[in-house]
Design goal:
Xyl_isomerase-like_sf; EC 4.2.1.8; four-stranded antiparallel β-sheet; Mannonate dehydratase; 12 strands; eight-stranded parallel β-barrel; 46% helix; manganese; mannonate dehydratase activity; 400 residues; single chain
């Protein structure tokens, strides 16, 4: 098994270029055809055109992140069968083009979510942040979702009210836009009215029903992926908690066990994101990596730092430097290298792609105006740190 250094690139409009990625040390590119609406088939000719663009830079497009799952599939709403057929056809087209790793997520309505995109980081630079009080203020006093006050609780609702009242008009607009406009690779841009309408369409859907839809999806799609030699790698919820009254079912070790039981083959694998899973203090990341290592098909290596509040079990957190924060990536990397040796002993020569996920804005990153969470210098630093950690772990394990 080869540990492949990859870099997420958002296509020709990305202000962090393919040349930047190559100079950072990446050999594989993580990309998606974001211009194609979720639910439509990815044409072979479009996939190949993007591959040629990446190859011209001296790298390969090796990971898709993400092949979108429609809300209709998650809810099993009218039209979901056609969306599933299109998802399967896109898998076949990607496999025909030689792309064997596909990441996706099962987060209802909102994908990865933050409340602040350019917070001052403790060590300098800027970082993304999720503030539970700020999100509660959005939910309670901007979206005005029915029942939100009961879910957030009296103490946090009061704190959110004070927070909201203290915002200037400009700050309130910025918070609203940060949550509704969607982050790179996440949900589409929404208005408050569209969000409320989508929430009504999800009304009454329980965690068990969302699991039932995911189980049916995997039992239908994974055999096709297996036939094509493709690994489907589900990404954890980010943050790993229910939001806006919607259940989230990819947040804990128990969730991951259940998902892997739905289809036993490698086609049903994990995007193991240490940052998303690490937000929860009850997720013991090293033990989880050890348990799930044989079914990890893609690694997102990053670290978050929790800012727990006494009156809430929903953590605030910010994006920490890769080798700092709560994730303890050194211990995780050691377990990944052990898994590498195990796979090699079994004759498994497939690559395991990893990327320095997210990054703080450092030096001239803010001037460049890269996609939030995906700066050039911050990720270069992260990938360099991870590369060094992998080299040391390899030497420590092989030489004792």
């Amino acid at each position: 098994m080869v540990l492949e250094q990859t870099w997420r690139w958002f296509g020709p409009e990305d202000r962090v270029t393919l040349r930047d990625a190559r100079e950072a040390g990446a050999t594989g590119i993580v990309n998606a055809l974001h211009e194609i609406p979720v639910g439509e088939v990815w044409p072979i000719e479009t996939i190949r055109k993007r591959q040629e663009m990446v190859r011209f830079s001296g790298m390969e497009w090796t990971v898709v992140e993400s092949l979108g799952v429609t809300e209709r599939i998650k809810m099993r709403a009218p039209g979901w069968q056609k969306d599933m057929e299109n998802f399967i056809q896109s898998i076949r087209h990607l496999a025909k083009c030689g792309i064997r790793t596909i990441a996706y997520n099962w987060m209802p309505l909102f994908s990865w979510t933050r409340t602040h995109l350019h917070e001052s980081a403790p060590g300098g630079g800027y970082t993304t942040r999720f503030d539970a009080v700020a999100f509660a203020a959005f939910d309670l006093y901007m979206l005005k979702r029915t029942g939100a006050d009961k879910e957030w609780g009296e103490d946090l609702s009061r704190e959110a009210f004070r927070y909201c009242k203290a915002l200037s008009l400009e700050q309130a607009d910025e918070l609203r836009a940060t949550i509704l406009d969607g982050l790179p690779g996440g949900h589409k841009k929404l208005t408050l009215e569209e969000t409320a309408e989508m929430l009504r369409s999800y009304e009454g859907i329980t965690a068990d029903e969302l699991r039932s839809s995911l189980g049916e999806f995997l039992r239908t799609v994974a055999p096709v992926a297996e036939e094509c030699g493709v690994r489907l790698c589900i990404h954890p919820d980010d943050p790993p908690r229910p939001l806006l009254g919607l259940p989230r079912i990819v947040s804990t070790a128990e969730d991951l066990r259940w998902i892997l039981e739905q289809y036993a083959g490698d086609a049903n694998s994990l995007t193991f994101c240490t940052g998303a899973l690490g937000v929860r203090a009850d997720n013991k990341l090293r033990e989880m990596v050890t348990e799930f290592a044989p079914r990890i098909g893609f690694l997102h290596l990053r670290s978050t730092e929790r800012e727990s509040r006494a009156n809430s079990d929903i953590e605030s957190f910010f994006e920490a430097p890769h080798l700092e924060g709560d994730a303890d990536l050194i211990s995780i990397i050691i377990e990944v290298v052990r898994e590498k040796h195990r796979r090699n002993s079994c004759g498994d020569s497939r690559s395991l792609p990893y990327r320095a996920d997210h990054g703080q804005e450092l030096l001239n990153d803010r001037e460049r105006g890269a996609a939030p969470g995906y700066p050039a210098v911050g990720r270069l630093r992260g990938l360099a740190e991870l590369r060094g950690a992998f080299m040391m772990a390899e030497r420590w394990i092989t030489e004792g």
